[in-house]
Amino acid sequence: MKTKTMIAAMAAMLVAVQGTMAGNITAKGSDTLVILAQKWAEVYNAKNPDVKIQVTGGGSGTGFAALQTKQTDLANASRQIKPKEVAACVKAFGKRPTEYKVCVDGLSVYVNEKNPVKELDLEQLEGIFTGRIANWKEVGGNDAPIVLVSRENSSGTYEFFKEHVLKGKDFAARAQTMPGTAAVLQSVAKEQNAIGYGGAGYGAGAKHLKVKKDAGSPAVDPTEENVVSGKYPIWRYLYIYLNPALDKGEIATYLNWIRSDEGQKVVKDVGYFPLPKHLRE
Question: Which domains does the chain have, with CATH numbers?
């Protein structure tokens, strides 16, 4: 009888432990989103101390890979999921992942604060990052070689920039690749002739350029008004993806909070831009 009683007690303890673990949420992926995701977790946990949210970066591609292998609940992404990633998720858990837009980002182009260049158009940016334009004097700057700072190819920001600015062309082979936007900014801040790119939530130590759609268009700052209205030419949504089977209980409550006025206030506090009201439903 003692043995049966002990087994029953251990089973009860296991249920209790599983119950406490049920409040754990994991989020992995985009380095662009990692600071915002950590802040969301911090603010939410302060009001819901029983819910522990673990946030890690690694890039959008890393987040999607973790989603496919069920190693994360939420995949943070700075780009939309690719068809092959959807197929891998369907193979893993039988359904297409649910996509949530969670905020808006103006992808900024950064140069050193000492760089006299203040604006560039999309064609010039394409030429610079593909290597066709190699000296700052070609775009109105000093007579100095342009030092390219980019993201690694697992980054959604890298892929977005390549698709929308480089029009699918490859980055110049001499581009230095960095593991996150913070590292890009640090490099640009240290190197007077450097240029890099990253999310609007970053920027300390460097200055952003105004960007023009073409040579005849006005130069536009990546402000909230310009980004949300589409006037700024390099903008995007940031996303969270998950297995639809997990979109319930505490995870669903958390995702709803992220898209609420309170969660979107955190977006603005970090330096990104809130979703328009009609996209929060």
Answer: 2-104+238-279 (3.40.190.10), 108-229 (3.40.190.10)
